[in-house]
Amino acid sequence: MTGSQSSAPTRGRQRNEADVVVIGAGLAGLTAARELVAAGRSVTVLEARARVGGRLLNHRLGDGQVTEIGGQFVGPTQDHILALAKEVGVATYRAAVPGENVYVRNGRARRFSGHLLPDPLALPEMGIALARIGQAAAKVDPAAPWRAPNARELDGMTYETWLRKAGITGAAVDLVNVFLNSAYGGEARDASALFSLWYVSTFGDETHPGTMERGTGTTGGAQDSRFVGGSQLVAQRLAEELDGRVQLNAPVRRVSQDSTGVTVVSDAGDWRAGRVIVAVPPLVASRIVWDPLLPAQQDQLFQRLPFGTLMKCVAVYDRPFWRAEGLSGMGLLRGGSPIREMFDNTPPDGGPGVLMGFLGGREWRKWAHRSAAERRGAVLRCFAQVVGERAFDTVDYVEQDWTAEQWTQGGPTAVAAPGVLTDFGQWMGRPHHRVHWAGAEFSPYWNGYMDGAVRSGQHTATELLHQI
Amino acid sequence: MTGSQSSAPTRGRQRNEADVVVIGAGLAGLTAARELVAAGRSVTVLEARARVGGRLLNHRLGDGQVTEIGGQFVGPTQDHILALAKEVGVATYRAAVPGENVYVRNGRARRFSGHLLPDPLALPEMGIALARIGQAAAKVDPAAPWRAPNARELDGMTYETWLRKAGITGAAVDLVNVFLNSAYGGEARDASALFSLWYVSTFGDETHPGTMERGTGTTGGAQDSRFVGGSQLVAQRLAEELDGRVQLNAPVRRVSQDSTGVTVVSDAGDWRAGRVIVAVPPLVASRIVWDPLLPAQQDQLFQRLPFGTLMKCVAVYDRPFWRAEGLSGMGLLRGGSPIREMFDNTPPDGGPGVLMGFLGGREWRKWAHRSAAERRGAVLRCFAQVVGERAFDTVDYVEQDWTAEQWTQGGPTAVAAPGVLTDFGQWMGRPHHRVHWAGAEFSPYWNGYMDGAVRSGQHTATELLHQI
C-alpha cells in the first residue's frame, strides 16, 4: 500500500472518526449501516445527495400524496426488502389495477386481460421464447454465472445474437426488448447472452430458481406490489432509525488507505475509519479517487459495467379517468413508440390519477437529447393510444432522467457486454484491503432490484463483521 | 449552466490564467498546445504525471540507450506523426531486423520468412479472412461508422460472432485475436463487429483506404518504423518547445464552466481559461468532476469506452544473441501462451539485446493477478520458444502494465462493445460548451495510434481557433 499520491488534501481539515464509514445512503448502504449499528459499531453514512434513497425517489403530488419516479415494484421471493419494509413499518399493496390492459402495435390498440396478448402471431412466438430462455437460464448459477457449462460460448455473443440462434424471432424479440428497456435500460445487443440469461436466473431466491415469468410478471411477479407512501419511504425510515448517523451533501472525492485505517475525503469533511463499505454503483465508485488504486482487474470490471439508459415519464391527472372506462392503465406498445411499457401509478387511495411510462434503452437514445416539449408530446401521444385523448389533459407532467442524475449516471442498473462476466466477473465483490462493496449490482438474486440491494447490504455487513 | 455544486474548492487558492488550458501532455495535448501557441494564444498544459508522453514511455537501458514500454511503431500513411517528428528533429529507422521469424503452435516452433506463415492449414484460412474483413471494412466510413449500410446489423453482434458468420474459422480466428490482443488489448468478443471493421477502416488516410494488411504489417505496415531515441522523445521535444507551459504533477480534479470561462482545479493549483481541451482518454476524462455534468449521452458513451488490457513484457540481454543465429526475434505464438506476439526491441545501434512481448486481451486477464515471478517465468518460456534457452539469461526484465497506470487505466486504446457506435458514437467529439476533446480515441484515421493522437490534436486546435 502506498502513501498519498498528491499534496495532502486533508491538511487542516476537521477529521471525524467511525468504526465504519458507509458511502452511499441507498438501500444497500442504509441496510449495511443498520446491521453494523445493531452489532455495536460506530457508523457514519456519507451521502452525496441532499436526500437518502439512491435510485428510490418519491415525487410529491400534493396533499401528502406521492408517486415514485425511481424503483417502485416488489414481489414474491423478494423477502429481504419485504421483511425490512415491514420492520420499519412500511406497508405494501397490490400494484395491479382492475380493468383491461392495452396492447398497441403499429398504432393500433387492442384491449386484453391478464398476460394473454391479443396477438395471435406473437403468442406462440412468446411461448417458445419463454421456454427457451427458461431452459438456458436454468443452467446458469446466479452466484457464479462464469461457471455455467457453456459460459464462454454464451459470453462470446450478444443476447440479440443468442435470441436469433435460439429461433426466437419477430414479436418475441421485440417484447424481450420491451422488457430489457425497463429492466436494465438496454437492448438485447447491449448485453452478452450470458449476462442476460444470468439476469433471468437472479429472478428468484435460494429455493425458487429465477424465471423470466417472475421477472416480467405483474401479480405474482416482480411488479406485484408497491409501498404505501412510496418506496423511498423505506429508505427514509432506515435513515431516521440511524438517528443522525447519515451525513447528507457529502460527496466522497477520495478514499485513502494505509495499514491502520481508511481516510475518506468528502465535501462535508474527512472521516477516518477502520473499514469502509462502498454502497454506490460500480460506475460511480470508479470515479472516486482511489489511493491505492483499485486492483487493475476490478477497475477494468467497473469500466465495463456501464449503466443502462432510462427515463421515467409521469403524467398526473385530476383522477384516474381510465379506470371508469374499464382500463387498468397498463399498456404495452410496439413499433417504435418512445414509451413501450406503462402503468397506472396512481396512489393507493385512488387519486390523483397518475400514468407512468418507461422511456428506456434505444428509445432513450433517440429521445433524450430532444427538447422537453417535443418529448412530452410524444410521450402523451403514447399514453393517449392506451387510455384515449384525455391523456393530454394533464395537471402535471414530470420526467426523471436517471442518466442525468450526477450520483447515478444511468439506470436502472449496470449491464455487462460480451466478455465481461467470464473474464472479469469474479472480481465483482472482492474487498479492496479495508474497503468492502455493496449495492444492488452485487447481489446474486434480484440483481439491480431493491431486494438485491438489501441482500447485498446485509451480506456485506456480515462479511465485514467477521473480519473486525 | 449551473453554478458550483459543492462548497467551493477553489477558495483562497492561487488562480492562474490562460487563453486555453490543455489537460494531458500526451501527443494529442502537446500537439494541440503547439498549434495554439503558434496562433498566438496563451496556453498551459496540465499533466497529471511527473512526465510527458502519456502512453509513450521510454525505458532507460543505461549508457544513454532506451527501449519503449509504451507505443513505439509508426508506418506509411501515418504522415501526421511522421511530419511532426521530423519537425522536432526525431529520426526514424526501419523496425524489422534481418533474419527469420518464428511461428509457435502448441509448443512447436517453425522458422519462416516474411509474412508467409509455415502453416499449410492456416494460410488459406488467413487469406479468406483478410479478403472478407477487407471487403466488409471497405463499406465503413472511418469518420461515421454508424452510417455504414448495415451498421445496425454489424453493431448488434460481437466481432467473434461476425467472424464465424463470415466463415472465418480455426487458425484465422486465432490469428485475428493475436492481432487484437496487441492492437486493442482485447478479444474478438469484446468488440462489436462494427467497431472492429471500423477499426480496420482507420488504418489509412484520406487517400489510402484502411486495410487489415496495413494495420498488421511490419515493413510497409503499421509496425514499419521506430523512432531513434524512443517514441517518448517526440513528446519530450514538443514539451521543450512549449518552454515552461507544461505543468507536471497537476492532476485535474474538477472542471467548472460558467458563461465567462472555465475553472480547472488541479493538485498544482487552479487555472481560469476561455477554453479547455481535454486530451486524456475518454475513460480518464469521465472521472474528472464535471460542473455542469457532461451531456448524459456523452457520459454514457464514455461509460462504454473501457480500455483494453495490455502489458508489455521486456527482457534485456547483453546483446541480441538471436541475430547471430539468423533470427529476427519476431515471434507469433498460438495455443494459450501468455505472449502471443513478440519483437526484437533492441536499440537501433545494436545493443543491448531487447525482446518485447505483448501480454494482452484474455492472456492479461489470466496472468495479471499472478505473482510477478510466475509471470516472468511464463513470459521467458515463451521467449525461449522463439529464440532458444538463452532467453532465460536476462540482465534485466521489465513489465509495463498499462492497466495499473493511474492516468491511463488500460491500454492501448478504447474498445466499443455492441450497440455503442450506432447508439452513442455521434457524441464522441462534440464540444461540451467551452470544453473540446482530443486524443487518439477521437481520430477517424489511426484511431488509438500516435498518428491518430497528432491528427486529433491538430484538428481540435483548429476547431477551437475557429470559435474564439
TrEMBL record, chains A, B:
<dbReference type="InterPro" id="IPR002937">
    <property type="entry name" value="Amino_oxidase"/>
</dbReference>
<feature type="binding site">
    <location>
        <begin position="47"/>
        <end position="48"/>
    </location>
    <ligand>
        <name>FAD</name>
    </ligand>
</feature>
<dbReference type="GO" id="GO:0016491">
    <property type="term" value="F:oxidoreductase activity"/>
</dbReference>
<feature type="binding site">
    <location>
        <position position="252"/>
    </location>
    <ligand>
        <name>FAD</name>
    </ligand>
</feature>
<feature type="binding site">
    <location>
        <position position="358"/>
    </location>
    <ligand>
        <name>substrate</name>
    </ligand>
</feature>
<dbReference type="InterPro" id="IPR036188">
    <property type="entry name" value="FAD/NAD-bd_sf"/>
</dbReference>
<dbReference type="Pfam" id="PF01593">
    <property type="entry name" value="Amino_oxidase"/>
</dbReference>
<comment type="similarity">
    <text>Belongs to the flavin monoamine oxidase family.</text>
</comment>
<feature type="domain" description="Amine oxidase">
    <location>
        <begin position="27"/>
        <end position="465"/>
    </location>
</feature>
<feature type="binding site">
    <location>
        <position position="441"/>
    </location>
    <ligand>
        <name>FAD</name>
    </ligand>
</feature>
<dbReference type="InterPro" id="IPR001613">
    <property type="entry name" value="Flavin_amine_oxidase"/>
</dbReference>
<keyword id="KW-0560">Oxidoreductase</keyword>
<protein>
    <submittedName>
        <fullName>FAD-dependent oxidoreductase</fullName>
    </submittedName>
</protein>
<dbReference type="InterPro" id="IPR050703">
    <property type="entry name" value="Flavin_MAO"/>
</dbReference>
